[in-house]
Structure formats: C-alpha cells, structure tokens
Amino acid sequence: MAKNPNRPLSPHLQVYRWSPQMAISIFHRATGFVLATAGMMTLLWWLSAIGGGAQSYATFQQYVVSAGVDGTAVQIASNWFFRLVGLAVTFSFFQHLASGLRHFVLDIGAGYELKTNRLWASVAFVAAFFATALVALFVASRFLGVL
Amino acid sequence: MDSRTYIGRVRGLGSAKHGGEHWLKQRLTAIGNVLLTTWFVLSLLMIPSFDHAALAQWLAQPLVAVPMILMIANIFAHVRLGLQVLIEDYVHDDGLKFAAMTLLNFYVIASAVFGIFVVAKLAFTGAPA
C-alpha cells in the first residue's frame, strides 16, 4: 500500500485524556524494554564477574557498586550512572511484574468493568512505586552506607 | 496459478493451528518468570555476604546454578517474544523491521548462551582465584 502523507489521520493519542489504564499499557512496554536491555546486561555482567574470579568481581564492584575512597573520576561517574540504572531497573521490575499480573487477570476475562479496571491499573503503579522505594532504602542502608 | 482472490484461496481450509502460539508462549514464559525471579530475589536476600568468594560458592551450587540457567533461558525467550511485538508495532519500514528482527534474534540468543555458559562453567569447574 502506497503511503501518502497527505491522507487524513484518525484521532490519535493527543486527543485523549491520559488515564491509568492507558499509562499502564505503555509503561508495560517501556519497562519491559528497560529490563530486556539494561536489566539483563547488568545481570550478565554480574554473573560473568562472579565466574571470572576475584579480580573481575572487584572491577565490577568498582564500576557498578562503589569505587571506594581512591576511585577514579570515571569509576565514580560510572557508580552514579549504575545507581540510576539500578533504580530504573528496580522500578521496571516491579512495574512489569504488577502489570503482568494484571494481564493474567484480564486474560481470564475478568476486571474489564471501567471502575475495576481503573482501580487495578492505579494499584499496580502504587505497588511498584512503594516496592521500589523499599528496595532503594534497603540497598542504600546495606550496601552504600547511606542512612 | 489460480485466479481466485486471496480470501477465496484460504476460505474453508480451517485454521493453521498456529494462531495462539505466540500469545500463549508469552504467557507461559511470563508464569515462568514470576516463579524464577521470585526465587532469584529470595535467594539474593539469603546470601550471607556479597564478597566474591561467597557469591562464587553460592552460584556454583546445583540448586542455584540450575534455576539461574532456567531463569536466563526463560527471560530471554520472553524478551524475544515481547520485543518482537514492539518491533512489529513501531517499526513500519520493511527493511528496518527485518534488520531489527535479525538484531533481536542475535541479541537474545547470544546473551542467553553467554549467560548459561558462564553459570555452567562456574558450576562445573569453579571460579579462578
């Protein structure tokens, strides 16, 4: 089919008011992408650093967890980058899990009533937010020496 | 060659029995991911220390290495199905779509094989000092 840019478009995203039900759909995809790329690459780096021996694990720790007091500027920058990645991946994990569980419920044909649908979409966001906050506090106090 | 329309050619043949395959596989791997990542998080919480020796000892145990290998395989299977849908929905150019799909398959298979190899090697031969 030839694509003619002058053809009229049907109403698209910009004419709708954003609702939790719409947001959770696109968040499911976005968080899935984050987990598939940043999440899995960091996991594989961690596993291969463990498998590679004490030296390679020390390198992983310097770049990802904490460079320590004599860390180079690059390592400290890398630490902050991976803290952001860690936060994004943690939120993505819980968000994708919560909206994935919601999908299971929808798949059996339940939860399509407007108010119910809206409620559980909101619950998924709130649950992911609090779970992420909990993990962030735990990691900050146990591994980063903050708090 | 026959001169019938496309719909005329397929009408009455019944389904190819493949219609639900992608959808079903996505759900099956999702169930697997719920179980395996729950195991992973609980197992992480129970590791006594995060220094290298303790982690290597943890990962080399059969009851950690096996679920870890399963988790890697299952996650990347799920990634392949999920990102395939993203590509199909958002990449409209046929050439780009083919390239993206090829790249996705390379990424998923290479990453899964790498991860499984790393865990298996550690479990079979132990970590170098």
Characterise this structure:
The complex is a heterodimer of chains A (147) and B (129). Chain A is elongated, with a radius of gyration of 21 Å. The longest helix of chain A is centred in the middle third of the chain and has 35 residues. Chain A has a domain of 97 residues. Chain A has 4 helices and no strands. With 147 residues, chain A is mainly α. Helices cover 73% and strands 0% of the residues of chain A. By secondary structure, chain B is mainly alpha-helical. Chain B has a single domain, classed as Fumarate reductase/succinate dehydrogenase, transmembrane subunit (3 helical TM bundles of succinate and fumarate reductases). Chain B contains 5 helices and no strands. In chain B, helix 2 packs across helix 4 and helix 4 runs antiparallel to helix 5. Chain B is elongated. The N and C termini of chain B lie far apart (68 Å). The mean pLDDT of chain B is 94. At the A-B interface, helix 1, helix 2 and helix 3 of A face helix 2, helix 3, helix 4 and helix 5 of B.
Throw out a few tags for this protein.
heterodimer; A: 147 residues; mainly alpha; 0% strand; elongated; B: 129 residues; 3 helical TM bundles of succinate and fumarate reductases
Q: In the CATH hierarchy, what is the architecture of chain B at level 2?
A: Up-down Bundle
Number of helices of chain B: 5
Oligomer: heterodimer
Number of strands of chain B: 0
Overall shape of chain A: elongated
Number of H- or I-type helical stretches of chain A: 4
CATH topology of chain B: 3 helical TM bundles of succinate and fumarate reductases
Which pair of chains forms the biggest interface, and how many residues does each contribute? A-B, 26 and 29 residues
Supply the helix-strand structural class of chain A: mainly alpha
What would you give as the CATH superfamily of chain B? Fumarate reductase/succinate dehydrogenase, transmembrane subunit
Radius of gyration of CA atoms of chain A, rounded to a whole number:
21 Å
How much beta of chain B, percentage-wise?
under 5%
Helix proportion range of chain B: over 70%
Task: Give the CA-CA distance, first to last residue of chain A.
Answer: 60 Å
Mean pLDDT of chain B: 94
Low-confidence stretches of chain B: none
Average pLDDT confidence of chain A is 92
The main pleated sheet of chain A reads as:
none
Main beta sheet of chain B: strand number and arrangement? none
Low-confidence stretches of chain A: none
